[in-house]
Amino acid sequence: EKAFVRGRTDDSRENLNRRATIVLEVIMQASDVFHATQNWHLYHKWNERHFFQAYKAFRSGRLTQDPSIFWYKSELLFFDEHVIPIAKQMSESGVFDSTGDEYLSFALSNRQQWAAKGGDYVASMMARYHGQ
């Protein structure tokens, strides 16, 4: 059911506040994954920066496992367990109009592209990190 629907019969102040709280919670969750609900170029740009940050932490001893080993699979898991469910909530809430649908569409498309090309992207990020 949509968070805000015109003509509801239960528009008490309490129910309005409850629905507004739910929407705010979704927005806060979305802020953590927002880069993955944008076009491929923006997603890849921020994903690469995050990868470089993690790889630098690994090289300096602040991260115990080399991210190049787990990055591909962890991004798929990230999409499946976080990004896509949050994008679905945004789409289904009715609060974001067609923008919510756009976020979901980009998330699904980015997940599909990552599944097809992510392994190659991890290899190219490693090469760029090492200046090759």
| Helix vs. strand class | mainly alpha
**Beta strand %:** under 5%
**Biggest β-sheet strands, sense, barrel:** none
Tell me the helix content. Answer: over 70%
Categorize the overall geometry.
elongated
> Can you write the helix and strand succession as a string?
HHHH
Catalogue the unreliable spans. Answer: none
Distance between the termini: 51 Å
Q: Count the beta strands.
A: 0
Global mean pLDDT: 88
What's the helix count?
A: 4
Radius of gyration: 18 Å
Entry keywords:
single chain; 132 residues
Task: Describe what this molecule looks like in 3D.
This protein is mostly helical and 132 residues long. The protein is 77% helix and 0% strand. It has helices at 13-33, 40-59, 67-93, 97-129. The termini are far apart. The model has no long low-confidence stretch (mean pLDDT 88).
Summarize, please.
This protein is mostly helical and 132 residues long. It has 4 helices and no strands.
Topology:
Blueprint (H helix, E strand, L loop, with lengths): L12 H21 L6 H20 L7 H27 L3 H33 L3
Helix pairs in contact: 1-3, 2-4, 3-4
